[in-house]
């Protein structure tokens, strides 16, 4: 016991002594760590100096880099190669392309010469944004300012991409290009329009010019160098010089916000660099360049202006907005509103109709519509193009068996009674609560719609990937989706129009926004009638659809009641907007019991790009899994319905009434031949002989069903994945 007490006494004494001298201990430890850090720093620095002064060490370092053991940055490859695209009719552009290729080869750069007729921009052009290639476009302007036959599809695709929000403003960001146009100044109105348009469309998609567009002139009297060959040789010399500078990694010395060849940066630069970087070459078309050589701030301002909403109900600010219009993209909106004033004064005034027709023509230029008369339009759907090339059809193909390549997307009324936040036309169409325009006859509308549709289909003749059999079939429209834009049911002669479709054996898919209940009741049989149910409560409907009618909610409910009285196929179309209308399941179920639709389509909203008319962003677009979960929860609340089909590519599912599940098999597809027989019998009987949705059903294929491996993609086609994604041949 005494020994243990002595040990404890010694131990406690040591602890107390250590605690009293703790400051000295801490100081010693800190001093030791400091010495260790200093020694390590100087040792590492000396090793680095020895390595830098020793060639052998450098070689070893490079060896490690090659074998992937180090993270040293390799020398950047500024130009991987040059791709020369040409569109030629007489062979001049092709000859120039080969001559330019030989010159590029002399610079020890890979080069590829490509005919635009053999190139599919839809598949390949986006890949050039990451390939570090320089793309050169040598394009000729042919008859009436049109591209040559070999370049027609390339130019058509580029124009649509530049004006289609689904591609986005940054679609070709990273692509570097130069354009040389071939034309003849004798044709003043169309001189080099193809080259100018191509340059502008590439710029609109955020591609980067490496030098200003140049123009060769076949008219020797006006050619800057005496001939188009001399014009090309002069431009080629400048191009090669610029190409060499890019290969050396030279960057633009200015801020890039230069206009009309005047640099605003403070840095000094030579005349040669100004020529290359600002486009102050002798070929410069100052007026044309001013149209699209704008700074990012100006572009943002233009975008803000372009998305202004002017309509019949908001005419008070027309004149103030007119003063701010900078170009025709702004003016088309403001002038339309001014034309609306004329129609309000006298709806039948011819001058108002003509004035509005011109305004609508400006709109269709932007959205690639084909205007018909004064209030109708037709457009080629992207799914039509897709199915022409064997890349799959739209969700209507999966759900109802339409042939997407034979479907015509049209409307007899561009006007609408809503201003929905997700409107994919950005509200460039007119709005109103009643018909105020001089009415075109349905025979004329249908005839011109078919002719315009066929002309748009003809542009795909010879295009890479288009299937010959489908091209021939597409020349005869078999279906008409009356859903392009606006409210088709507003058209006073909608019944005559629908009958004319059926007389041509064209099925009718009509979409309405549930604001015209009387028109729904009076509607003659159509193949399938849709009602957009964008919200399930009065408050959310007002917030999402922004209807013009003051009694919009009662009109909405009455429209659903009118739908329940229809004997042919009826559909609710639900568009899910995340954080807006996805938490109203019970209210949706109540609306379904009110309208008793045959089918319910549930689709995630499509983001339409930025717009001052809408606050939606990509955050409001639900994932497909979220749409599936919503549909499953909704189906649990409506016992007479089940999930039938899915089209993953469109982020869309179909809920069907159980009466379409016959002997355990879904029959959501349509027997179009049988429908035409039934509707003709109905016509001949003066309406006394009726028929129902059950009379023209067809069995749904396995691949279209919910839960199938293909997830709604037709396995007879090949699904194409963009941006270097591999093609999926399984049909999944």
TrEMBL record:
<keyword id="KW-0456">Lyase</keyword>
<keyword id="KW-0547">Nucleotide-binding</keyword>
<dbReference type="Pfam" id="PF04055">
    <property type="entry name" value="Radical_SAM"/>
</dbReference>
<keyword id="KW-0004">4Fe-4S</keyword>
<dbReference type="GO" id="GO:0046872">
    <property type="term" value="F:metal ion binding"/>
</dbReference>
<keyword id="KW-0479">Metal-binding</keyword>
<keyword id="KW-0949">S-adenosyl-L-methionine</keyword>
<keyword id="KW-0812">Transmembrane</keyword>
<dbReference type="InterPro" id="IPR013785">
    <property type="entry name" value="Aldolase_TIM"/>
</dbReference>
<dbReference type="InterPro" id="IPR001094">
    <property type="entry name" value="Flavdoxin-like"/>
</dbReference>
<dbReference type="InterPro" id="IPR058240">
    <property type="entry name" value="rSAM_sf"/>
</dbReference>
<dbReference type="InterPro" id="IPR029039">
    <property type="entry name" value="Flavoprotein-like_sf"/>
</dbReference>
<dbReference type="InterPro" id="IPR034556">
    <property type="entry name" value="tRNA_wybutosine-synthase"/>
</dbReference>
<keyword id="KW-0408">Iron</keyword>
<feature type="compositionally biased region" description="Acidic residues">
    <location>
        <begin position="282"/>
        <end position="305"/>
    </location>
</feature>
<dbReference type="Pfam" id="PF08608">
    <property type="entry name" value="Wyosine_form"/>
</dbReference>
<dbReference type="Pfam" id="PF00258">
    <property type="entry name" value="Flavodoxin_1"/>
</dbReference>
<dbReference type="InterPro" id="IPR008254">
    <property type="entry name" value="Flavodoxin/NO_synth"/>
</dbReference>
<feature type="domain" description="Radical SAM core">
    <location>
        <begin position="400"/>
        <end position="644"/>
    </location>
</feature>
<keyword id="KW-0411">Iron-sulfur</keyword>
<comment type="similarity">
    <text>Belongs to the TYW1 family.</text>
</comment>
<feature type="transmembrane region" description="Helical">
    <location>
        <begin position="23"/>
        <end position="42"/>
    </location>
</feature>
<feature type="domain" description="Flavodoxin-like">
    <location>
        <begin position="82"/>
        <end position="240"/>
    </location>
</feature>
<keyword id="KW-0472">Membrane</keyword>
<dbReference type="InterPro" id="IPR013917">
    <property type="entry name" value="tRNA_wybutosine-synth"/>
</dbReference>
<dbReference type="InterPro" id="IPR007197">
    <property type="entry name" value="rSAM"/>
</dbReference>
<keyword id="KW-0819">tRNA processing</keyword>
<comment type="pathway">
    <text>tRNA modification; wybutosine-tRNA(Phe) biosynthesis.</text>
</comment>
<dbReference type="GO" id="GO:0102521">
    <property type="term" value="F:tRNA-4-demethylwyosine synthase activity"/>
</dbReference>
<keyword id="KW-1133">Transmembrane helix</keyword>
<dbReference type="GO" id="GO:0010181">
    <property type="term" value="F:FMN binding"/>
</dbReference>
<feature type="compositionally biased region" description="Basic and acidic residues">
    <location>
        <begin position="269"/>
        <end position="281"/>
    </location>
</feature>
<dbReference type="GO" id="GO:0051539">
    <property type="term" value="F:4 iron, 4 sulfur cluster binding"/>
</dbReference>
<comment type="function">
    <text>Probable component of the wybutosine biosynthesis pathway. Wybutosine is a hyper modified guanosine with a tricyclic base found at the 3'-position adjacent to the anticodon of eukaryotic phenylalanine tRNA. Catalyzes the condensation of N-methylguanine with 2 carbon atoms from pyruvate to form the tricyclic 4-demethylwyosine, an intermediate in wybutosine biosynthesis.</text>
</comment>
<protein>
    <recommendedName>
        <fullName>S-adenosyl-L-methionine-dependent tRNA 4-demethylwyosine synthase TYW1</fullName>
        <ecNumber>4.1.3.44</ecNumber>
    </recommendedName>
</protein>
<dbReference type="GO" id="GO:0031591">
    <property type="term" value="P:wybutosine biosynthetic process"/>
</dbReference>
<feature type="region of interest" description="Disordered">
    <location>
        <begin position="251"/>
        <end position="306"/>
    </location>
</feature>
């Amino acid at each position: 016991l005494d020994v243990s007490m002595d040990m404890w006494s010694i131990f406690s004494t040591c602890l107390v002594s250590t605690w009293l001298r703790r400051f000295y201990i801490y100081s010693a430890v800190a001093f030791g760590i400091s010495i260790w850090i200093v020694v390590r720093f100087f040792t590492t620095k000396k090793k680095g100096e020895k390595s830098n002064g020793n060639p052998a060490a450098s070689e070893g370092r490079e060896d490690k880099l090659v074998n992937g053991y180090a993270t040293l940055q390799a020398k950047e490859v500024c130009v991987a190669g040059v791709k020369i695209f040409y569109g030629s009719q007489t062979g001049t552009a092709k000859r120039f392309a080969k001559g330019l290729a030989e010159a590029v080869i002399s610079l020890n750069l890979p080069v590829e010469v490509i005919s635009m007729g053999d190139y599919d921009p839809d598949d390949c052009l986006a890949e050039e944004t990451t390939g570090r290639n320089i793309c050169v476009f040598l394009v000729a302007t042919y008859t009436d300012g049109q591209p040559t036959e070999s370049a027609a599809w390339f130019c058509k695709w580029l124009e649509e991409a530049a004006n289609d929000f689904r591609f986005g403003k940054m679609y070709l960001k990273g692509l570097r290009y130069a354009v040389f146009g071939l034309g003849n100044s004798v044709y003043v109105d169309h001189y080099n329009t193809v080259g100018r348009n191509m340059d502008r469309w590439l710029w609109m998609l955020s591609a980067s010019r490496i030098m200003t567009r140049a123009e060769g002139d076949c008219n020797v009297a006006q050619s800057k160098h005496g001939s188009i060959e001399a014009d090309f040789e002069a431009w080629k010399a400048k191009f090669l010089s610029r190409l060499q500078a890019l290969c050396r990694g030279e960057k633009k010395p200015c801020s890039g916000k230069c206009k009309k060849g005047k640099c605003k940066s403070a840095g000094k630069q030579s005349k040669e660099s100004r020529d290359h970087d600002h486009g102050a070459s002798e070929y410069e078309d100052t007026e044309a360049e001013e149209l699209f050589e704008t700074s990012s701030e100006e572009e943002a301002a233009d975008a803000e202006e372009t998305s202004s909403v002017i309509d019949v109900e908001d005419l008070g600010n027309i004149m103030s907005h007119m003063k701010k219009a900078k170009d025709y993209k702004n003016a088309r909106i403001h002038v339309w509103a001014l034309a609306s004033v004329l129609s309000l004064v006298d709806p039948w005034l011819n001058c108002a109709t003509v004035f509005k027709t011109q305004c609508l023509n400006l709109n269709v230029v932007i959205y690639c519509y084909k205007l018909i008369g004064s209030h109708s339009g037709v457009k080629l759907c992207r799914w039509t193009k897709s199915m022409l090339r064997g890349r799959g059809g739209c969700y209507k193909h999966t759900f109802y068996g339409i042939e997407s390549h034979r479907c015509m997307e049209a409307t007899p009324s561009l006007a609408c009674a809503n201003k929905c936040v997700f409107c994919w036309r950005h509200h460039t169409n007119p709005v109103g609560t009643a018909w105020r325009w001089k009415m075109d006859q349905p025979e004329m509308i249908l005839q011109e719609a078919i002719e315009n549709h066929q002309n748009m289909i003809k542009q795909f003749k010879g295009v890479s990937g288009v299937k010959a059999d489908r091209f021939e079939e597409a020349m005869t429209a078999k279906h008409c989706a009356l859903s392009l834009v606006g409210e088709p049911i507003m058209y006073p002669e909608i019944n005559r129009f629908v009958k004319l479709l059926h007389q041509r054996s064209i099925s009718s898919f009509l979409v309405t926004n549930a604001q015209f209940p009387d028109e729904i009741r009076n509607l003659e049989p159509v193949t399938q009638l849709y009602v957009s149910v964008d919200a399930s409560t009065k408050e959310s409907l007002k917030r999402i659809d922004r209807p013009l009618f003051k009694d919009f909610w009662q009109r909405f409910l009455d429209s659903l009641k009118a739908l329940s009285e229809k004997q042919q196929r009826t559909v609710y179309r639900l568009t899910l907007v995340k954080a807006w209308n996805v938490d109203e399941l019970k209210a949706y179920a109540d609306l379904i019991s009110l309208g008793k639709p045959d089918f319910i389509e549930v689709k995630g909203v499509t983001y339409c790009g930025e717009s001052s008319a809408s606050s939606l962003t990509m955050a409001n677009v639900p994932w497909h899994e979220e749409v599936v979960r919503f549909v499953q929860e909704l189906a649990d609340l409506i016992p007479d319905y089940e999930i039938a089909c899915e089209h993953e590519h469109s982020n869309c599912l179909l809920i069907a009434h159980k009466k379409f599940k016959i002997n355990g098999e879904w029959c959501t597809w349509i027997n179009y031949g049988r429908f035409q027989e039934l509707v003709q019998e109905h016509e001949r009987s003066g309406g006394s002989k009726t028929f129902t949705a059950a009379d023209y059903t067809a069995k749904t294929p396995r691949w279209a069903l919910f839960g199938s491996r293909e997830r709604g993609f037709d396995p007879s086609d090949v699904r194409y994945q963009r941006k270097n994604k591999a093609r999926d041949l399984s049909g999944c």
